[in-house]
Amino acid sequence: MLDKPPVPPPAPAPEVPASAPAPAPRKATPARPVKAKAAPALTVTLAYGEGEWTVAAAQGSKVLAKPYVIRPAEAMRMVSLVDVQGVQEAVEQILASERAEAEKEAQRLRAELAEVEARLAELGEAGR
Predict the structure, then answer these.
(1) Strand 42-49's sheet: what is its strand order?
(2) What is the pLDDT of residues 83-116, one digit of tens each?
(3) Alpha-carbon distance 23 to 62, whole Å?
(4) Which of 75, 92, 96, 110 shows a CA-CA span of 20 to 30 A to 125?
(5) CA angle 60, 82, 85 (to 5 degrees)
């Protein structure tokens, strides 16, 4: 028979002294609260141009309301809610200017109407 080389006995497990403290369990780190992503800024624009008041709204790059025409009284009401003196004065000046132009146009149209009515009256008399 062939001789087998002697097999070394298995290495004994390292001994841990009974007085050695067991490794402390890992402390669970509290999960950081996930910050909610802040909503993009909301922008509402009141604008005046070419004789019209418009309002538009956007949130970030998303258009919520394309510019649409509003009445001058609505524009003044919106500005009064903001309560910014310089802005209110500017809107009041624009409205006063528009009012003066409208009055001037109304006077011109009244004079033109009076001329047309006078001519119509003359034609009516001539036809009799």
Answers:
(1) 42-49, 52-59, 62-70
(2) 888 988 998 899 999 999 999 999 999 999 999 9
(3) 55
(4) 110
(5) 125
Determine the Cα–Cα distance for residues 40 and 61; give it in Å rounded to an integer: 8
Instruction: Answer yes or no: are the C-beta atoms of 94 and 48 closer than 8 Å.
Output: yes
Query: Distance between CA atoms of 116 and 74, rounded to whole angstroms?
Result: 36
8, two tokens: 């070394």
Which of these ranges, 37-41, 42-46, 109-113, has the smallest mean pLDDT? 37-41
Do residues 25 and 13 lie in contact, with contact meaning Cβ atoms separated by under 8 Å?
no
